[in-house]
Write a structure and sequence with these properties.
Blueprint lengths: L8 H8 L21 E7 L8 H12 E12 L4 H8 L11 H5 L8 H10 L3 E7 L7 H7 L7 H13 L6 E7 L2
Parallel strand pairs: 1-2
Antiparallel strand pairs: 2-4, 3-4
Length: about 180
Amino acid sequence: MQPYFFPYIGYFQLIAAVDMFIVYDNIKYTKKGWIKRYDNIVLTHVLEHLDDPVLVLKRINDEWLAENGRFFLVCPNANSPSRQIAVKMGLISHNAAVTQAEAEHGHRCTYTLDTLERDAVAAGLKVVHWSGIFFKALANFQWDRLLQTDIISKEYLEGCYKLGQQYPNLCSSIFLMCEKG
């Protein structure tokens, strides 16, 4: 799990909805051995760090997810307003570009709802729901500064969360809810 400048409501809702919260870290199982399958798996802000994300998604589908289980997948959104503003400012060449700061943080790629769904389907997963989590027009470093003031209220944060439900393509994070394919 990555640290954030503040936890968003949807993040805690996802954690509360699962039986087990798993962080992928080079997990190895004995081939054809007994493997516990999970009813709920959450992978949050991990996929963009992996060299072969489809391979990990395939293992989740084929090896770890129970027959009627749910898989919740959360990633930063390449189409977030802060990234679109960065393109207009000439800071990045296109929305999906991996910035130097992201690369230093271990990001290998960025995702939109379309590309996230593409990789999930390529891994054999069945996407049953998708959405955004939080509308955020500012970059993380700007939020960090802003949160040191008293400008941001609980009501403002709740409004950003609700706006994200209305405009998922403009959220800072996007998610898929998948079932075994």
